[in-house]
Amino acid sequence: MAKGDPGAATRSKRAAPRTKRAAATGEPELVQLLTPEGERIESALGPDGTEYRVDFTDEEYRGLYRDLVLVRKLDAEATALQRQGELGLWASLLGQEAAQVGSGRALRTQDMAFPTYREHGVLYCRGIDPIMPLGLFRGVDQGGWDPNEFKFNMYTIVIGAQTLHATGYAMGVAMDGKTGSDEGEAVIAYFGDGATSQGDVNEAFVWASVFNAPLVFFCQNNQYAISEPLERQTRVPLYQRAGGFGFPGVRVDGNDVLASYAVTRHALDNARHGQGPSLIEAYTYRMGAHTTSDDPTRYRIASEVEAWQAKDPIARMKAFLTKQQIVDESFFAEVDEQARAESVHLRERVLAMPDPEPVTMFDHVYPNGSPELDEQRAQFSKYLESFEGSAH
Amino acid sequence: MATETLTLGKALNAGLRKALENDPKVVIMGEDVGKLGGVFRITDGLQKDFGDQRVIDTPLAESGIIGTAVGLAIRGFRPVCEIQFDGFVYPAYDQIVSQVAKMHYRSQGKVRIPMVIRIPYGGGIGAVEHHSESPEAYFAHTAGLKVVTCANPQDGYSMIQQAIASDDPIVFLEPKRRYWEKGPVELDAPLTDAYPLHAARVARPGTDATVLAYGPMVRTALDAATAAAEDGRELEVIDLRTLSPLDLTAAYESVKRTGRCVVVHEAPGNLGLGSEIAARITEECFYSLESPVLRVTGFDTPYPAARVEEEYLPDLDRVLDAVDRTFGW
Q: Which residues on A lie below 8 Å from B110 (Cβ)?
């Protein structure tokens, strides 16, 4: 599948026998189009009766698989780099590839995304060089991409803060008159289950609702906020919160890239057509640590992890492609080789990332500068130059 | 040139109106800023004339006001947020110091947040708690924010326009006890001719001691100078106007002439702006000083009940006492 827009697959007019199913994995009202065993489900119903389906070409299926494998491999490389002391920290997306690739590929070129610090898969789908977030975690910058160019905002570390930014941006989209047609713009805000406890997220829900903002709240419920389980954040399924704020909510199998794509595309299209916000709860599991700083064996049991292992997003896509004879074995080998080569390339480039010149810490504090800061910069430069043989 | 006599409140209203007229991307947002015109009526009539997409009544949540304004700014708007009272800004504190202040830095200059956060601040109006605070040090301490405060109608009119036109995120502090004080305002002068936003100004020239004040205390300092003059002592009063960056150029020049300096603010003294100012003046003017730099400030208590606020707030007598002390060294 080409990077970008795989077509309006959810609005297929194809006359095919329809089977309406929901809750295929036993989770309540979980939209699913691909079972953990790799069985394709033709269509699935959301809690409000919306029918979700996708109609990808074989090439698009292969593209989604390639995305999943690549982002997992690049993520694994980053984890390894952290373990070897090359990154100060890494927030792994392991297990969440389908939620990120599915939603990321559902975005159209004109749509704007507001991520947390874990959305490396969405970043990849936006066409951003995967090395970009590594600068932040290596400590050489705070994220190097241009949010305006790629329509993908800076990573936000403070939990939930970006949901308000997304809401304001979406209000601006509406104020600019950029909704109401298929060419309309939509906005997506990423956050986790822990963030739903934050005031900012709840304020964002209120704002988006009363201003009818063209916004999709995309919650990756990966079951844990560092060590705290979902039960410490909520007593109701998260997607049901949307109802109290006055917009629709839906829970999707976040380990199913097809369903994640379908519900996100539908919600984005509703938003761009002027139908306001919605909440997607992508029900998934963080297979690794919250970040490389914590130890998940302290707070969760092996059997739980194993149960989720069986729902792996890549394995089920692989099973589907094989069963449907969409690919042959050489395809998987070719994708694996591409992922290996890209991760080696990533590693080489990370190791070559230079430390910034110390005096650059004074850059970009203010668009219009500050005399106080100019003086500090001058004094600090002079101080550095005072060392004999200094490189600075 | 049309010079009118306006209150500070009306001057701010006129400045906001000008900004809305001049740039279609300017939006005003806050609680009750629309039909009501704000609790102090600073936005009076603006929604009627510019519509509810330009003057936006928001839900009642301060973090939401600032956080959504960040998104609007990223989208290309120039939001002017009103926080209803000083003591209500704290729920928005995270958005202001962690997001508004740092977006430009974090993005290496690619994202600009040209935003103004208006806060009516300070005491002296007999209000209940949380309605009389002076939070300027919190914001001046945060790199990435600029902090200014006006002390008279002319500055209110031009500084609010300058702040809105600036790409820097600016905390704009309005001395609420001075909203009803009148002064001349040149309404038609081009903004480019206005006194620079980030520069202090001598409010009253003098030779014997320097009094530094800003916002609501400028009036108090000027009153003290008038009283001192009757006793034959000429005080130079400097209106700082800009708290971050601090412009002490005029202060250094003045203190080197007078040899004496008193800093006045309403906020508690402990780690207040006065501490920073005293330290810098000591570093810069050490050989000219005849006595230590003294501070006249609020006390290190929560803002007290209204019936004792006149005792809490620095007044003419406390300023003059401090000036006397600088002569006693």
A: 146-148
* Cβ atoms of residues A109 and A149 within 8 Å: no
In chain B, what is the greatest distance between 2 CA atoms, to the nearest angstrom? 60
Chain segment A15-63, per-residue pLDDT in tens: 344 444 444 444 558 999 999 999 999 999 999 999 999 999 999 999 9
Of A371, A366, A377, nearest to B198 by C-alpha is: A371
Contact B68 A373 (CB under 8 A): no
Q: How far is CA B169 from CA A145, A255, B97, in A?
A: 22, 41, 11
pLDDT tens-digit readout, B228-258: 999 999 999 999 999 999 999 999 999 999 9
Q: List the one residue out of A20, A99, A369 whose CA is nearest residue A261.
A: A99
Decide: A41 and A54 in contact? Cβ < 8 Å. Answer: no
Reported as a pLDDT band with limits 50, 70 and 90, residue A12 is: very low
Polymer length in residues for chain B = 329
Contacts of A364 in chain B (CB under 8 A): 104-105, 107-109
**Distances in Å between the alpha carbon of B74 and those of A273, A390, B170, B251?**
22, 40, 16, 37
Q: How would you classify the pairing of strands A215-221 and A224-225?
A: unpaired
* Mean pLDDT along residues A230-248: 97
The span from the CA of B320 to the CA of B326, in Å, is 10
| Token couple for B58 | 């928001």
**How many helices (H) does chain B have, and how many strands (E)?**
12, 14
pLDDT tens, B114-126? 999 999 999 999 9
Question: Which amino acid does the sequence have at A108?
Answer: R
Question: How far apart are alpha carbons A342 and A352 in whole angstroms?
Answer: 15
Asked whether A59 and A82 are in contact (CB, 8 A), the reply is no
Using CA atoms, how far apart are residues A36 and A62, in angstroms rounded to an integer?
18
Cβ(B32)–Cβ(B38) below 8 Å: yes
B71/A168 CB distance under 8 A: yes
Bridge partners of B246, per DSSP, are: B243
Chain B interface includes A377 (CB < 8 A): no
Least confident of A2-6, A325-329, B66-70: A2-6
The rounded distance, in Å, linking the Cα atoms of B281 and B258 is 13
User: Which residues of A carry out catalysis?
Assistant: 286, 290, 299
CA separation for the pair A203, A199 (Å, rounded): 6
pTM (predicted TM-score): 0.94
| Three-state SS at B279 | helix
Q: Which are the contacts of B275, defined by CB distance < 8 A and separation ≥ 6?
A: B269, B295
Distance CA A73, CA A341 (A): 10
Q: Which DSSP string do the residues of A48-103 spell out, in sequence order?
A: TS-EE-----HHHHHHHHHHHHHHHHHHHHHHHHHHTTSSS-----TT-HHHHHHH
CB A285 within 8 A of CB A223: yes
Report the number of secondary-structure helices (H) and strands (E) in chain A: 13, 11
Q: What span, in angstroms and rounded, lies between the C-alpha atoms of A287 and A117?
A: 16
What mean pLDDT do residues A259-284 have?
98
* Residue B73, both tokens: 């700014």
How close is the nearest chain B Cα to the Cα of A122, in Å?
Answer: 18
User: Which sign, positive or negative, has the C-alpha torsion A379, A385, A388, A391?
Assistant: positive
Q: Establish whether B131 is a catalytic residue.
A: yes
Per-residue b or e along B264-275, where b marks 16 or more CB atoms closer than 10 Å to that residue's CB: bbbbbbeebbbb
- Residue B245: asked if its preceding bond is cis (omega within 30°), the reply is yes
Q: Where are the alpha helices (DSSP H) in chain A?
A: 58-83, 97-106, 120-125, 132-138, 147-150, 161-175, 199-210, 241-245, 257-272, 302-309, 313-323, 329-351, 371-385
